[in-house]
Known about the structure:
Elements: H1 5-10, H2 25-33, H3 47-57, E1 64-66, E2 72-74, E3 92-98, H4 103-115, E4 118-120, E5 123-125, E6 129-133, H5 139-153, E7 157-160, H6 164-173, E8 180-184, H7 189-198, E9 202-207, H8 210-222, E10 228-232, H9 237-253, E11 264-266, H10 272-284, E12 289-292, H11 297-311, E13 323-327, E14 336-338, H12 343-355, E15 360-364, H13 372-377, H14 383-393, H15 395-398, E16 403-406, H16 414-420, E17 425-428, H17 436-444
Parallel strand pairs: 3-6, 3-12, 6-7, 7-8, 8-9, 9-10, 11-12, 14-15, 14-16, 16-17
Antiparallel strand pairs: 1-2, 4-5, 13-15
Helix pairs in contact: 5-6, 6-7, 9-10, 10-11, 14-16
The structure holds iron/sulfur cluster.
Amino acid sequence: MALTGLQIQKLLPKTNCKECGSKTCLAFAIKLAGKKIDLSECPYASDELKEILGAASEPPVKKIELGAEKELQLGEETVLYRHDKTFVHQTLLAININDTDEPEDIDKTLTSVKDYRLERVGEKINIDMVSVTQKDGDPEKYVELARKAWETLKIPLILRCADIKTITAAAEAIKGSHSVLASATIETADELRQIASSNEHNLVVTAPNLDELVALTDKVKKDGFNDLILQFQTHSLAEQFQANSIARRIALKKNFKPLGYASIKFLESGDFADDTVLALNEITKYGGICVFPSFDPAQLVSLMTLRLNIYTDPQKPIQVDPKAYTIGEPKADSPVFLTTNFSLTYFIVSGEIENSGISAWLVVPQCEGMSVLTAWAAGKFSGPYIAKSIKEMGFENQVTTREIVIPGYVAQISGELEESLPGWKVIVGPQEAADIESFVKVKFG
Ligand code: SF4
């Protein structure tokens, strides 16, 4: 929680010595509260103040880094509702493998995870993690499976193993992956903390209820380890929803550090539909890592699409680069279409042109990620603006076509566009992208 200038001043020496460049300690404190000066400017700042300000500047939800290059992150969230600002790090989706699975099934899952790619509005989406669960008592088999998963996929793992010796060996075998060890209880926290620390992994902590979980995170942090992930021991969707919400709310609203961590949920209801709903809850309600019991592309495609919607920054519309795109293999005299660089619009329009079976050019000016009517209202889709973009792209030298099909919703710009693009004829296309195919058949068929 941020301190006020008066609160900071009480912790300063109050000698008004001016060495910091401020006339008084109060003036310095006010600047410090407003983040206009650094505490190091005062050579007499107490350790207590340094500690308090350091804690106050920590994000309410601890940042966790995963992967060899620390390419995946969790935490650092600052709002309860996406529309207040944005959610920062999306829920990571993981697939579980048991060491009791048949070898051919393990290979099949690893290959499926490795090859899985979902493309949505220009984003290429992969599976983030794999969980390796010990169900057999054979330590070597488990360690070999963890090693194989890491070497095959090079994505961070979740080592879910109750045997301390086995998880120690597995953690060492995948050192450098910045993975996750699961799950430390009050009884095993000391040992697992040391294993996580010495192998640079993160640690899941779990307890039967929130009070005991708070005591456990507090203890592990005081013992010097803070790369923690929470696992709530819940038994229903309602309980999980409640635990996720309480932890995130108290972390953000009260800056309550013992619950200021990302969470993990293993989907184990045994029912496909129930697991899917639980996953949906994790994605929409603050889940950090969600572990699926098996690989199912149909389940993933809907949940990854949902995740993309939830974690897209509402202040920054997703957009494609402004340029002339090719659809199929257009020639210099192929038809030319126009749309905006809002990703959703671009991919719907380009998909419909592709479906129509013709090769064409699709000209996309810089519209700052706005849809057709919004861009037009903002002056980013006017005749002169589009003409200027086309000229800057050098597109007129690329094609001999001198007809351009514009979206039906901006039929009103056809005159000004023709005036701004001498020699071009503007064709008003359909309002809805779904009608492009029939439009193409009539116009170019
Ligand atoms: S240097 Fe420190 S003690 Fe001196 S005036 Fe500035 S804040 Fe006060």
